[in-house]
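Tutorial handout. Part one gives the primary structure; part two gives the three-dimensional structure as tokens.
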Amino acid sequence: AELVRDVDIACRVGDLELAVILPSTNRIGAEAEQMRLIEVLRRSLPAVEFSSGVAVARDDADTPLELLMAADAARLIDKRASQHDQTRPTEPTFGYSDGPPTAVERC
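Part two.
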């Protein structure tokens, strides 16, 4: 299976962080794609821990930077929840972690 769809744009936004831009996708579609990506990554990298967050343009942010920040905020909530629930596997990062994105131009 492909990791991303032909219309999607995968970007590295940090050393270990990535973002997947899903053009013309609403929150329901983004969350479904997030779950699909999680399953693909878990099968490919079973020993790696991940965290993830979804943000939707116009709903959560007005600019690309705000969108990444909103996705990261959602990712941090997911990461904290997984740390408190040791039985719950963590998910892939769809944001950035340490400070504002410095490599957005790599998209």
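Part three, for discussion. Confidence is low (pLDDT under 50) at residues 88-107. The CA atoms of residues 35 and 54 lie 11 Å apart.
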